[in-house]
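Database export, one record per block. Field names are fixed; values are copied verbatim from the stored entry.
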Amino acid sequence: MKIGIVCPYSWDVPGGVQFHIRDLADHLIRLGHQVSVLAPADDETPLPPYVVSAGRAVPVPYNGSVARLNFGFLSAARVRRWLHDGTFDVIHIHEPASPSLGLLACWAAQGPIVATFHTSNPRSRAMIAAYPILQPALEKISARIAVSEYARRTLVEHLGGDAVVIPNGVDVGFFDKAEPKAEWQGGTIGFIGRIDEPRKGLPVLMRALPKILAECPETRLLVAGRGDEEEAVAALPKEMRDRVEFLGMVSDEDKARLLRSVDVYIAPNTGGESFGIILVEALSAGAPVLASDLDAFAQVLDQGAAGELFANEDADALATAAVRLLGDEERRTELSERGSAHVRRFDWSTVAADILAVYETVTDGAASVAADERVSLRARFGLARD
């Protein structure tokens, strides 16, 4: 199958949507499909052979973060050329409601379109206001996917219609087989995320750290991500700042090794999360997880069975839970085992099969799927008939 995938956010800047698209493309290519990804990127940036640049992105504040999007006449021309040259069997657009390549592709594409919605934002006035503009493009979509029940709810409330829920995928084996790093082991807690993005929750963790260190003075906090490191520790007492080690941006390999090494992985995110891919990665690596009780995080962690939850933005609750886990090796082992079993449902072998099934339902004359199988797939995913 010839598959065109549209990424709305800059390929040069790491993020959950970009990682999802990258890993999906890699998995589909390994299965023998032809895949091309269109994404914003600086023209001089080295790209994988399957990624086509649509030009440089522009930073736009969105959903408590800064999204790097691409929109305009030049971008529209590149979208049309990519669609013309690709002759795709199916176009898979991510975040088609964002003012970026996905919306442009929705307007320009002919033939089957599958859309994945990642955003969870129950109070988006901008999305409601933009609906009349978005409606003609969204009506061209043949099938809709939401990465979580909360992303589905945002879609239903703001844009109408419905979607099948297919979660983000992870290469579970990649994290499970990573080798721990000796210098990252021994009384360590981990955080991975953009340091200067408040909704990722590092300030909450920093407020909790003095209480954690008072009870567990040998604990070290390992922080991976870009941002102002001095500002991040500014509120900490000076004598505690050496208990925080900043690792900067880490490779995928080192991220997996970090998650395999820490005693507890902490996700103190405060909002704006529709899924929680870092939680799935941590579970895949066997890390005991402690996360804020966001609805999306609770769903990923099986309502607390696969990882512990604390009250969102409550630094004292975070500290109390972290101290308890650091002092209870048996509980950490139990969480690791439960998490490792639970996370298998998010492996790409399962997730990509579900996405391919959706592709098949919207592709006319797919030789690999018999008519009765197509009826079964449509019933499974709740999709309309051709």
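Remark 1: Residues 172-345 form a domain with the Rossmann fold fold (CATH 3.40.50.2000).
Remark 2: The first strand starts at residue 2 and ends at 6.
End of record.
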